[in-house]
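Q: What residues go here?
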């Protein structure tokens, strides 16, 4: 009996060891999880327009432990208006950007709520200052305002280790909000009524305009 037990234990150890090895070969970041070494993972998203917007952009998030270095460039957004921007992630979500098939009420626009099955809830509010938690999802006075229609955002943000791991595995999505449907140069209720998130805000202020999944960049640490 004792022999069987120890054999089992040995087999278990072997299995663990080989799993660890696989991890090392697969993704450097996760295998080294506990190490405090210089293990960074870089993720990158091409931001594509939603809701027939003309906007475009890119996002880069470098993960180092629990530290995120977030950098976003976007253009052709509504000028001089706040653009809420977030990192969305949901374990149950499809972990991608929504499509027209997510327009569940068939009103020919995707609001933020309709996108949640695709990109999940807000996990990080990419504010310019102060709190970056989901509490700041609609903190319109602390988001980039795109003075010339473009955003250049850079901020270092600390998050929980589980979220950091999810982002470093390529499961998170960057979403920028705010779209001037009726092209009158401002967010107003004539464009698409009230926001489903806050009836005091026009839907134009909260509907998603740009979206991209943060894909893991392989080989960025390779020395040539
Ligand atoms: Cu968002």
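A:
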């Amino acid at each position: 009996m004792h022999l069987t037990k120890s054999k089992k234990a040995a087999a278990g150890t072997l299995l663990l060891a080989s799993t660890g090895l696989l991890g090392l070969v697969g993704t450097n970041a996760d295998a080294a999880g506990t190490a405090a070494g210089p293990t960074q993972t870089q993720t990158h998203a091409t931001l594509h327009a939603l809701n027939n917007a003309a906007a475009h952009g890119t996002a880069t998030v470098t993960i180092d432990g629990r530290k995120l270095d977030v950098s976003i460039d976007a253009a052709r957004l509504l000028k001089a208006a706040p653009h809420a921007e977030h990192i969305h992630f949901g374990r149950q979500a499809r972990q991608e950007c929504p499509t027209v098939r997510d327009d569940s009420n068939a009103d020919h626009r995707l609001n933020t709520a309709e996108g949640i099955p695709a990109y999940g809830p807000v996990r990080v509010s990419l504010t310019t200052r102060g709190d970056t938690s989901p509490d700041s999802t609609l903190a319109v006075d602390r988001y980039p305002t795109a003075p010339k229609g473009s955003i250049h955002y850079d901020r270092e943000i600390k998050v929980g280790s589980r979220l950091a791991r999810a982002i470093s595995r390529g499961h998170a999505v960057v979403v920028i909000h705010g779209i001037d449907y009726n092209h009158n140069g401002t967010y107003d209720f004539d464009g698409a009524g009230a926001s489903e998130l806050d009836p005091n805000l026009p839907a134009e202020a909260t509907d998603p305009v740009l979206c991209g999944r943060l894909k893991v960049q392989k080989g960025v640490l390779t020395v040539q």
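A: Context that may help when evaluating the design: Strands lie at 40-49, 56-64, 67-75, 85-88, 122-125, 151-158, 173-177, 208-213, 215-216. The helical segments are 2-26, 28-31, 116-119, 161-168, 189-192, 203-206.
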